[in-house]
Description:
The structure is a homodimer.
Chain A: H1 13-33, H2 39-50, H3 56-63, H4 67-79, E1 83-87, E2 95-99, H5 101-122, H6 127-144
Antiparallel strand pairs in A: 1-2
Helix pairs in contact in A: 1-5, 2-5, 3-4
Chain A binds a DNA duplex (23 and 23 nucleotides) through helix 4.
Amino acid sequence: MAKPQTSGLETHLGYWLRYVSNHVSHAFARKLEARGVTVAEWALLRALFDHDALAPSEIAGNMGMTRGAISKLTDRLEAKALILRTQSRDDKRWQTLALTASGRALVPKLAALADRNDEEFFGHLTATERQAIAEAMRTIVRRHGFKNIPTE
Amino acid sequence: MAKPQTSGLETHLGYWLRYVSNHVSHAFARKLEARGVTVAEWALLRALFDHDALAPSEIAGNMGMTRGAISKLTDRLEAKALILRTQSRDDKRWQTLALTASGRALVPKLAALADRNDEEFFGHLTATERQAIAEAMRTIVRRHGFKNIPTE
DNA sequence: TATTGTTATACTCTATAACTATA
DNA sequence: TATAGTTATAGAGTATAACAATA
């Protein structure tokens, strides 16, 4: 009748999610490494692929990172010639970020790596299982009002 | 007929797991902060709760961390008087780590925080849903031979 | 030599806060 | 003053590698 007083690590669903997520993410990071980018850089490049000309502070809001973190991230991406900073004429405090030609060319290749990584870890699940898990995760995001794009 | 060439972030199950896992883990970290420990420290303390007198290199193997990382971790835990380092008599290269009285008293309180955190994020799911997700994760761990205990 | 634990270095991401330039 | 972007600092985590002590 007495519940165990001290639950173990493996009794928590959060433990299992973190366990798998860490490995999946690290495997993805190793794949991206061959292209010279990190997971955070991939997330930003992918965002610019759809919405070019975003301002750093907008990105900070979308991705749940601080402006300082975005500043360092864009430093690295600019040094790799994957994005371009442009000052706004109207308000010189604002910048807009956009992909360079080589940045835009790279994104589909990175997306293919993401596809391959997902297939590697979740390919054995049925489509129904994958959808059920994804839906459960989306529900949790909705219920808790998460605003960040994960970058780890 | 043509598949989209450049898949988006949200098309990958790995993205959703990382998204939710990061938030769940950060929420847990904030709860642990009130007790002055990190998630990595919690995982080590919980391991010692079951298997006292582990050697740092054994822990490194179990948790998938380097010996250097364990060394820093045990430095902090010893400074907080939660664990004790003891040199082995037989082979002076070996140490054994064990919980102090206050360390042992703390673990059940941390476990309660973990229970509460899990309930907060996954409590709305049915037992069947939770078990299905946990089982899917365990299967992935088994298939890929993961060896690390997640500490982020 | 091989192994244990420690230390040093470097990098990523996180967070806070001070700083500049502009409005 | 308020805001955008930068920079500095500090901490936790990762990884590699050199190191001393011991076997």
